User: What shape does this take?
Amino acid sequence: MNATGRVVAIVLAAGSSRRMGGRNKLLLPFGDQPLVRHVVTTILDSQAAPVVVVLGYEAAAVREALANLPVAFVYNPRYAEGMTTSIQAGVAAAPADAHGYMICLSDLPLIEASEYDQLIEAFQRAYVRDPACIIVPEFNGQRGNPVLFAAYYRKAILSEQRLTGCRGLVQRHPEHVVRVAMATDHILQDLDTPEAFEALRRIH
Assistant: This one.
């Protein structure tokens, strides 16, 4: 990896899947493995390093689903308060020499390793010009995930008060945002409901 663009993947795997009808969506089968293992394995195939997985709800079961994968785990005791607390736990656990954080959702199973790499490479190019860059993927003008933040924002992320993620941080720094047009809608295809899960699994 380019020494001026080391990107840590922070995988948010702490949520309680409230809209999934009582099932932990991360443990549901996707292909021949649990959804979370499919997603994390794909991220491991990308240029991101290391990969930090944030646990919370049913932490032991999620950890077991990721057994023997070369990832670092961090437990977020505040996971029920909102996504921001998990992002903060992951950023706090990231190596001090990281140049950027790729905030990965664990329910976007269609994103391919090459698409993660496209975003990492966009970060590396932007970082040379702007060490405060933020990379936002888009498909047909619609923003998706993962978003990549330069380590410049570490303190801002750790002190963020909004509990729904770091969207506000993106909105407050439009001059540093680099939008990356993606060729597919994979960055938008999250699985929040049983219907979405079954529809996506049928075509996978």
